[in-house]
Amino acid sequence: MLKSFEGGSAAYRVGQGTFNVDPESYLLVNEGQRYTVEIDHQTPVSSLCLFFPPGFAEDVKGSLTSSLTDLLDNPKNDPNPVRFYERTYRLTPELRQSLQMIRDSDPATINPDGQMFRVGRKLLVGRMQLASEISRVPAARPSTR
User: Fold this and answer.
1) Are 68 and 113 in contact (CB under 8 A)?
2) What is the 8-class DSSP label of residue 143?
3) What residue segments make up the domains of the chain, in order of their start?
4) Are 78 and 70 a contacting pair, CB within 8 Å?
5) pTM over 0.85
6) Residues forming a β-bridge with 14
7) Whole-number pLDDT of residue 61
8) Which CATH class is domain 2-144?
9) pLDDT value at position 97?
10) Is 62 in contact with 71 (CB distance < 8 Å)?
11) Could you read off the pLDDT of 69-104 as tens digits, one per residue?
């Protein structure tokens, strides 16, 4: 799930970590992970939390890594669950725009699947880039452990 705030910040405790989420950042929490949140502000704070259904990240990943033919033949082809790095991330302009579109949308006319898919794609692309960067760190490679 994705946690974001406007007009203030919140402190999340996830596992052993504490993460401050402010208007310039967001937090990703994996499915099933317990967390607590503390909001301590004098003025109202607005939050946007996107809860992705089970299997959603895997479906989005499949759309990024599989051919159209493979997706049509076997739409649920990746049995490995997608795990995000549970931490805060800086909002990119593209993700900020997508989240703002969701915030501003009329609930009667929003296409939640389309909006969620666009956000999911942005998150998965970011996750794949981060995993690639981590794999290039010498201490993270199996041969150097």
Assistant:
1) no
2) G
3) 2-144
4) no
5) no
6) 17, 35
7) 85
8) mainly beta
9) 92
10) yes
11) 766 666 665 667 888 889 999 999 999 999 998 888
